[in-house]
Amino acid sequence: MLVPLSYNLRSLFVRKSATLLTVLGIGATVAIVSGILALKQGFATMFTAGGRDDVAVFLRPGATSEGDSQFSRDRGLELIKTVPEIATGEHGPIASMEAYLAVLLSPVRGGVTNVPLRGVQPMTFELRKNELHIVEGRNFAPGSDELIVGKRLVGRIQHCAIGETIVLNKTPFKVVGVFEHPGQFGGEIWGDLDRLLTAMNRYGPNRIVAQLKPGTVIGSVDPKDVLTNDTPPEPKPGSMAARLEHDPSVPAKVYSEKEYLASQTVMLTGILGGLSFILGLIMGLAAVFTATNTMLSAIAARTHEIGILLATGFRPFPIFLSFLFESLVIGLVGGVVGCLMALPFNGLKAGTMNMQTFTEMAFAFRVTWQVLLSAVIFSLVLGLLGGAWPAWRAARLKPTEALRGRA
Amino acid sequence: MPSFKLVWRNIMRRPLRSVLTVASLMIAIFLICGLRTLITTINAGVEHADSRRLAVMSATGLFVELPMNYQAKIDRIDGVEMTTKFQWFGGYFRSLKHFFAQFAIDPVSLLAMYPECQLPPEQKAAFIANRTSCIIGDGLLKDPEMNWKVGDTVPLIGALHPHPDDKAWEFQVAGIYHSSVPSFDNRTMFIHWDYYEETLKRGGVEPGVGVFSIRVKPGADVARVIADVKDTFQDSDQRVDCQTEAEFQRQFVTMFGNIPLFVGWIGTGVLIAILLATINTMLMSMREQSSDIGVLKSLGFTDGSMFGHMIAQSLFLAVLGGGAGILLSWATQNAIANGLGANFPGFEVKNETFVLAAVVAIAVGIVAGIVPAWRASRLRCVEALRGTE
Amino acid sequence: MSEVMIRVNKVSKAYERGNETLVVLDQLSLEMAAGRFYALMGPSGSGKTTLLNLVGGLDQPDSGGLFVAGENLAELSSSELAHWRSANVGFVFQGFNLIPVLSAIENVMLPLSLTPLSRAERKKHAELALELVGLKDRMHHRPKQLSGGQEQRVAIARAIATDPKVILADEPTGDLDRASAQQVLELLSRLNAEYKKTILMVTHDPHAADYAQSIVHLDKGQLGRIEDKQPAARGA
Q1: Is any Cβ of chain A less than 8 angstroms from the Cβ of B87?
Q2: Rounded to whole angstroms, how far apart are CA atoms A57 and A211?
Q3: Structure ipTM
């Protein structure tokens, strides 16, 4: 025979202040953890949303990111012409050399920050036609001193609006359009490759991106191994990656775009994941202690009632379940409160420094249903852990002693 | 308040509850110390900046190199006592797991301008004498795989500047420096500019300079020197930005974006959670003690002393938990610093942070005790004794 | 002995319960002599405990004058009342109300901590009081380790530790078995006889009331009859 659930619900209501304080405590914990998870989610979305399997990224061998990769313009052109896996469209190979540079600009809130600036070739827009959209104004004209800015920069960085002028070194560039991209490009400034190289006194692009013919297997090593293993494995022998690594004319390191992005986010994703785990663990522990305290005190105050339940013929196990249920309700309500506290963060823009390229990364908190679900599960775990020991103690009370009111 | 003994006995009345509360407080204070240290570490560079040092970089961005010949032009500006140059080498040892910063520099002027980089005289001499040598910060040695000694050879893969012979760069450790301030990174490697320049040129690459550092003459007008430096390069290929060292460091702080703000929010959340937990504990123990409070009042203890009695219990828990948290934070800071490594160099809990944590703990103790203490002081002993609180 | 220890002058006291006003004491006037043992009897709700609490300064009357041990209680602030209580009255409750976390002697020493006595003197006083109630050998026991009768005797020791003039007991035998109750009542009689304490004891039990020299009957907040017994009846 189970103890009626209404008994526990009513008890929670009778002890309002203790219940409320515990619920809010768990809520604060859950809110923090889900906030960090939302940040991680936003970050992951930004970096991997644009990551495609059919796009290859070519870097100089030994380079760790486009920041320290470098090609000369001639070699880049040669690579695009000679690699047979690159897909061809109406106007030639669907490939683009890209220059990548951080420029010092001022955020609206003050200070300075490094914003990624990307010089691209017209074929880029063919390559990105399904993911990148001009949402305001127009695209820059090839060969002109015009720029388009990622939507995430608008309102955050000064002069990132149509009609404004951004001076790069000594050359003024006019902002003519705003584009949207779900991935990292959405936080960048784009312009014509050659105009930007000239303006910035650079002699060549940083990387080459190209669309691959369907069915191409790159065979590169797992970028995570490259980052964390002391002796990264070699690319698969005979694969495209192995061949290009030792190409006599234009040696290059090649990844799929997806792999490349994963290699760039390994660190920060790891940090955010570790942070949410550590904070969740530590704060969760504190929340469990609070829940335990509340339940122990609830049980101490109701020892007499437990005695009556036992005397009426309830078995210890249903009593255990009954108190566990009570604690789970506290956890659940706390979880819901925490989710409600975390929800306003959804869409909030965040910017931080990419430790690998020292550029600012703009991304947004994303409170997805996965985040909310993990928050609720987390809160239930807190309730379960906090309630288990007190409920067990309640179930082990001897009816005679409980009736006398001795816990 | 009746006596400390009664306070202590009431805390031990529910040992488990007190232990859990103290443990929660400990965790919270530990977290607050850690979170606060993240922020103070980010700001450390600004605070320890030398007011006589200026930094010159490209106006476009830190990653744009300046021509080497700018140094001679800067040296000629009135008020400039000395200059030295830094260039990011951008290599790595074995893999990015062991990431650390390397700069190509001129040893004589660097060591003269940065007294915070402390090196025994014989190591200093050895570094200056050997062109292919390097000095490394003692913070690097904490990584067991980078526990180098003087005389060891360190191979670096040149990610930014590959060696022209398509092999790893090699540097002999001539000395191990100690940094006397947190703003001078103790996990950096410095190599000889001359050797760096010569090797790059062999591969057909013209090296550039990331940052020139200037020391102004004592008493010189810093604002005028800054203006002169900017003016000098107004019509050159690369315009420059010249800032005091503090401003230069601050730009790295702002690059952290709203991370410090988020860290602050997390800290606030931790604080709220622990405050609620402590209030909860105090309300529960107040409820259990209400009949005792009635008795004490009937014995002649005043309302005020009952207020003190409850606050004392709350404070006692807070001091215990806060003290434990501070101790924990103090004891683990080296381990945390090692764990963070190069991703977040310079993690060191400052004394001010410990003081702040202590103040926070005491404040939590007082605030959490106020409502129960106020209730205890207002408790009518007739009702308390009747048990109808 | 005709000195008046307690003078109740037209005291009224009412409680609000919901939106009803419950008059507990209605213009009650009463005098009690120093050094006598009074029992206060009456049906439930007649105002016995309320009167006891007023006399002990735990509560203030709505109107009227209360003079106890030479002090007009109505004029004292709550902290003055607290000081007055510590010097002049000792309480004994039905539920003993010892502080559970303190040992017997620590309970007895508690009111002494409000006096200027040194620690050693407080200890001596407390030991004396415990000796008087016959529990010196149990002084380091916690309340939980004592029987009900023993707990009540420790409570009496606590009530007399500061040597107050008045002892107020609210149903002191209500929770005790017959033998323990008898011990407690004999102890109260002895305190009255040997130490000349003025005792006011609320009780339901006619047996207990037998130990008193006067029985005051209250009914619906007003004075009923007062039975005076021969002072010699209990060998004073």
Answers
A1: no
A2: 9
A3: 0.87
C-beta atoms of B280 and A293 within 8 A = yes
Q: Which amino acid is at B238?
A: Q
Q: How many Cα atoms sit within 13 Å of C152 on the Cβ side?
A: 25
User: How close does chain B come to A111, measured CA to CA in Å?
Assistant: 6
pLDDT band of residue A226 (cuts 50, 70, 90) is low
Using a CB–CB cutoff of 8 Å, tell me whether C115 touches chain B.
no
Confidence band of B197 (pLDDT split at 50, 70, 90): very high
Contact B284 A18 (CB under 8 A): yes
CB–CB contact A353 B90 (8 Å):
no
C110 interfaces chain B, CB cutoff of 8 Å: yes
- Asked if pLDDT for residue C154 goes beyond 90, the answer is yes
**Residue B74 · residue B83 · CB < 8 Å:** yes
Unique residue bearing structure tokens 């929660």? B24
DSSP characters over chain C: ---EEEEEEEEEEEEEETTEEEEEEEEEEEEEETT-EEEEE-STTSSHHHHHHHHTTSS--SEEEEEETTEEGGG--HHHHHHHHHHHEEEE-TT----TTS-HHHHHHHHHTTSS--HHHHHHHHHHHHHHTT-GGGTT--GGGS-HHHHHHHHHHHHHTT--SEEEEESTTTTS-HHHHHHHHHHHHHHHHHH--EEEEE-S-HHHHTTSSEEEEEETTEEEEEEEPPGGGGT-
Kindly state the tokens that stand for A371: 């985040």
Nearest CA-CA partner of C50 in C29, C24, C81, C83: C24
Confidence of residue A399 (pLDDT cuts 50, 70, 90): confident
Q: Tell me whether B129 touches chain A (CB under 8 Å).
A: no
Q: Taking all residues of chain C, what is their mean pLDDT, rounded to a whole number?
A: 90
Interval A323-340: pLDDT, tens: 999 999 999 999 999 999
The least confident of A75-89, A342-356, A381-395 is: A342-356
